Amino acid sequence: MTTLEDGDMDTFSQELLAFDGVKLAAVATVLYIIVRCLNLKSPTAPPEIIYQDTPLSLYLLKSCPMLTKEYIPPLLWGKSGHLQTALYGKMGRVNTPTPCGVRKFLPMHDGATATFDLFEALGDHSTGDDITMVICPGIGNHSEKNYIRTFVDYSQRQGYRCAVLNHLGALPNVELTSPRMFTYGCTWEFAAMVGYIKRSFPQTQLVVVGFSLGGNIVCKFLGENYSNQDRVLCCVSVCQGYSALRAQETFLQWDQCRRLYNFVLAGNMKKLILAHSGTLLGMNSSNIGDADLNRLYAATSLTQIDDNIMRKFHGYSSLREYYEKESCVHYIHKVSVPLLLVNSSDDPLVHQSLLAIPRTLAEKMPNVIFALTQHGGHMGFFEGAVLFPQPLTWMDKVIVEYTDTICQWEKKRPACQRTGSNQRDTNSSCLQNTPSGEHMHTQPPVSALHQR
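^ Monoacylglycerol lipase ABHD2, sequence as received from the core. Prediction below:
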């Protein structure tokens, strides 16, 4: 039987200590990566609010605590914009309700058939008025998506009728009736839905809501023609990028994994387009040919798909022209109704440089408030204590709270001063009572409102 010499024992002890040191270093490295990736050291804070010192803005900030208090995401993963975005994309929402609506079909002038789902309110609104939310979902989305269903159910219970546009070609069980699909900024289908609501409910007032790509569409719609703002109380846009031309270069960068997200979104768009390839190719008026579809198979980015397919639906001669004409950045300054623009600093899809657009708007336009959260990702905004998120998100609640406050504000004003009133530009006595002396303020992401 052999025994270890003293020298051998020393060597063994040193090797054991060295091995334990390697394991300890490996564990420390993994923990460091987790902390960095999950952004666990990032503090929670209220949104940064950019606004002008108008009576309405001050009333909103006083009456909307969601805009001025801390947004607290789930502790273990909610400070990661990537996880917020991924969970929204895959899971949508937790405990998703199933609101009951009626699907409407609207023939368009070019042979297309727009569809939207109409959901009646489940109770009276706090003002007693008839108010309809007209909602435009994100890219390739429709009323059956979990985040839309959750938001609609919550809004119905607060007394809002909801109309949700189904993007042309997005519903898997509805065939195209013309050789085109939805595009980044085409407002035709949304305009048709709004027109139907106005005709069917002559007494209703409208609240316009757009998510991501839908935010671009609704802001462009309101700015295209001043008459589009008739009977509109306010507009809320969440997580849009404002300018496709500026965004295209950032979307090809690897920073914040945008190139990977670009690839995934391009794959989803390819599936949608190919599902309707027969219709897109089979009609005489189609601008899409076999060569275009062949290039589509090889596309790895949304830019390539937009250049080969999407711009041709409306006959744009170049990708630059398509992006210029379809982006709301050229129309949004013409929107005069109260406008809430919401973005997140850790949104992996919207580059920080694009946020200069809403910031500048809020600095110059008295009707605009820009809310920038520190966390939330792209369309995530989950709330929760440690691990499990709440069924309703910060986004769901802040949209309804802002809208409720606007409705209360409008209810208290004289009829001639109300948003969308045809008399507001002609009644001099009302104009004489309009407040002036507006100043821009930036509320930092700390609770400093009561210090002013």
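Residues 48-242+336-451 form a domain with the Rossmann fold fold (CATH 3.40.50.1820).
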